[in-house]
Each structure stands twice: as structure tokens, then as C-alpha cells.
Specification:
The chain is an alpha+beta fold. The chain has a domain of about 60 residues. It contains two helices and five strands. The strands form two sheets. The protein has a three-stranded antiparallel sheet with strand order 4-1-5. A two-stranded antiparallel sheet has the order 2-3. The longest helix has 12 residues.
Length: about 100
């Protein structure tokens, strides 16, 4: 069975698929099916042993994978990402005209 590791920058993760919490850098032995679902989340999980690495290689070698190919899904519209240095909103007051 493949072994995967939590490498999430968030630290400990609640993994409903496993029914447990997985600590930062904690390794766990999982079924092939679970490894196939978690390993594509490279920002959260990394393969530890050769079996897990082979599963990850198979996922990315599969031509029928749901991953977009180069140029697919790209648009000229800006991404919905927050600004790198957001400024707090300013308070505006309404001026009364007349007296």
C-alpha cells in the first residue's frame, strides 16, 4: 500500500476521506484509490514510497485525466485573486447641501 505525507502549509489537516486528522509532515499508509484522490493535491500531499510515486506518475501520464492541457481554459480575463497588498476600505461620508 502506498505511503503519502501531509505537506500542507496549513499544517494539520482534517481528511474526511481518511476519517482522521493528519498532522504536518505525518505519513500514512493508504489504499491505491485514496492515493489517487489525494496525491494530485500536490500543495497538500506528497508521495513517500516508490508505490505512491508510481501512482502519481500514472495519474499525470493518463491521457484521459481531467487536467487541462496547455492553452485549454486560459482566458484574457484577470484571475479572481486578491491584491498582493490589499488596502483597508476608506470611510466616506455624505455631505449635506444647504444649511
Amino acid at each position: 500500500m502506498p505511503i503519502i505525507k501531509n505537506v500542507s502549509p496549513l499544517g494539520e489537516l482534517d481528511v474526511p476521506l481518511l476519517g482522521c486528522f493528519l498532522g504536518y509532515r505525518e505519513e500514512i499508509e493508504v489504499s491505491d484509490e485514496v492515493a489517487e484522490r489525494l496525491l494530485p493535491q500536490a500543495e497538500n500531499y506528497a508521495p513517500v514510497d516508490d508505490e505512491a510515486k508510481a501512482i502519481l506518475a500514472k495519474i499525470y501520464a493518463d491521457p484521459e485525466a481531467d487536467e487541462p492541457t496547455e492553452g485549454e481554459g486560459e482566458t484574457d480575463e484577470p484571475a479572481d485573486e486578491p491584491a498582493a497588498d490589499p488596502k483597508p476600505p476608506t470611510k466616506r461620508t455624505r455631505r449635506q447641501s444647504g444649511s
